[in-house]
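Allow me, if you will, to draw on your knowledge of protein folds for a short while. I have a record of one protein: its chain in single-letter code and its fold written as discrete structure tokens. Could you please explain, in whatever detail you think fit, how the structure tokens follow from the sequence? The record follows directly beneath this note:
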Amino acid sequence: MKRLRYDEIGYWSEVKLDIIKKYAAAYSKILTSQIQPRLEHVYIDAFAGAGKHISKTTGEFVPGSPAIALSIRPCFREYHFIDLKETKVKALKELAGGRKDVFVHHGDCNRILLEDVLPRVRFENYRRALCILDPYGLHLDWKVIHTMGQMRSVDTFLSFQVGDANRNVLWRNREAVRSRQLERMTTFWGDESWKDVAYSLSAQGDLFGEPDEEKATNEQIAEAFRKRLQEVAGFGHVPKPVAMRNKQKAIIYYLFFASHKPVAQNIVEDIFRQYEGRS
């Protein structure tokens, strides 16, 4: 087996973990107190990693989202950790320590979520879930997002990796983009409507008076995706996302939250406000 390499994470990734921890704690407390009807709540981490990371700031290990989830009290009824890499799956099993309420899945999260995990948290079975969708790039299938939105039983934090999109897909000369990259964006977005969002014709035209395309800003693309989560996936409440940045202050990804409960949006907006203005 290959040697495990822990991910090194920067300041904003640590902020993301803080956000998840605060909401997961509130979520578990609220769901546990629900009595009529009594609900069972499940934690799902689709790109779980090894369970801990190395902080670029301190050089020390910091708990990843699976470890954070396992530390939350009251406990979730079940935990589902998914990763594609065998070394990280092994680390997750060690983290679980043989607990019967922890399920570690090895493979493509899109298939595992749709076939194995999401069917366990159906609304009509009085089950609810908090799902973390934190891919490294555009590695998520819209079918997963849409399914969760239609189920009405799942709250989700979702990372939209706009940095990956800008590097590989959203070029000013879109004719030069490889077909495989276009397909990745379409799979993530759900259809080709992202092209209408990302590009528009300039009213001024180019130097010769011909129509010229203008590329949308990151903020415009993020807002279009937020509306898509509501209007197409069917989530009732999707607050404005948090922009996660690198050392150069460039936006790497947007952290979205989506839910069907207004109280969930209120909690997340309050948490998001705690990080406004940070750099």
Observations:
- The chain has ten helices and twelve strands.
- The two ends are 39 Å apart (CA to CA).
- The mean pLDDT is 92.
- The chain has one domain: 8-162+219-273.
